[in-house]
Amino acid sequence: MLNFPCLDIARIATSEAVQSKGYGTAMIEKIFEVAHTVNERYITLEALIEHYHWYSKRNFIPLIEEEAIQSNQHGLVFMMADLYDEKLVDLYFDE
Ligand SMILES: CC(C)(COP(=O)(O)OP(=O)(O)OC[C@H]1O[C@@H](n2cnc3c(N)ncnc32)[C@H](O)[C@@H]1OP(=O)(O)O)[C@@H](O)C(=O)NCCC(=O)NCCS
């Protein structure tokens, strides 16, 4: 059992009528912005396996590698984004 502080996304959805217009991406970007603001390093979620690549393209990686291929028994893949920005930290200490 993993135990670390994170911002966990419980549900995210775009109305069917307006999918594939960038709203989902905008929501994810806003969530990343909120996580940065509250100084949260990790964002986690359980993605439906059919949306695995959508999240992969948005900086999420699977916590359990095998789930990316076959999901868990609920059709979900536990994924995480790490907001640690090495360049930003270096810049902070350089200045
Ligand atoms: C997963 C979900 C939230 C994505 O939302 P969305 O608003 O359709 O997401 P986006 O429009 O940002 O991205 C979808 C695709 O639209 C296309 N797209 C994005 N912006 C676009 C734009 N401005 N114009 C045209 N196409 C665009 C892209 O191909 C993109 O996919 P890709 O970048 O992975 O190739 C949505 O499919 C959904 O609500 N599904 C039902 C509920 C669900 O399954 N939730 C997730 C549980 S894990």
Describe the structure.
- This is N-acetyltransferase domain-containing protein.
- InterPro entries: Acyl_CoA_acyltransferase.
- With 95 residues, this protein is α+β, with helices and mostly antiparallel strands.
- It has one domain: 3-Layer(aba) Sandwich (Aminopeptidase), CATH 3.40.630.
- The chain contains four helices and four strands.
- It has helices spanning 23-37, 52-56, 67-70, 86-94, and strands at residues 7-9, 42-48, 61-62, 76-82.
- It has a four-stranded mixed β-sheet with strand order 1-2-4-3.
- Strand 1, helix 1 (23-37) and strand 2 (42-48) form a beta-alpha-beta unit.
- It starts with 6 loop residues before the first strand and ends with a helix.
- Residues 12-14, 19-25, 47-48, 51, 54, 57 line the site of coenzyme A.
Low-confidence stretches: none
Q: Can you summarize the main beta sheet? A: 4 strands, mixed
Bound ligand species: coenzyme A
Overall shape: it is globular
Strand order of the largest sheet: 1-2-4-3
Query: Which percent range describes the beta-strand content?
Result: 15-25%
**What is the name of the CATH class?**
Alpha Beta
Helix count, per DSSP? 4
Oligomer: single chain
N-to-C terminal Cα separation, in Å?
A: 39 Å
The secondary-structure element order is EHEHEHEH
CATH fold field value: Aminopeptidase
Computed CA radius of gyration, to the nearest angstrom: 15 Å
Number of domains in the coordinates?
1
Let me know the average pLDDT.
Answer: 92
> Portion of residues in helices?
25-40%
- How would you name the CATH homologous superfamily? Gcn5-related N-acetyltransferase (GNAT)
SS-derived structural category? alpha+beta
* Topology, number of strands: 4
Q: Give the second-level CATH assignment, the architecture.
A: 3-Layer(aba) Sandwich
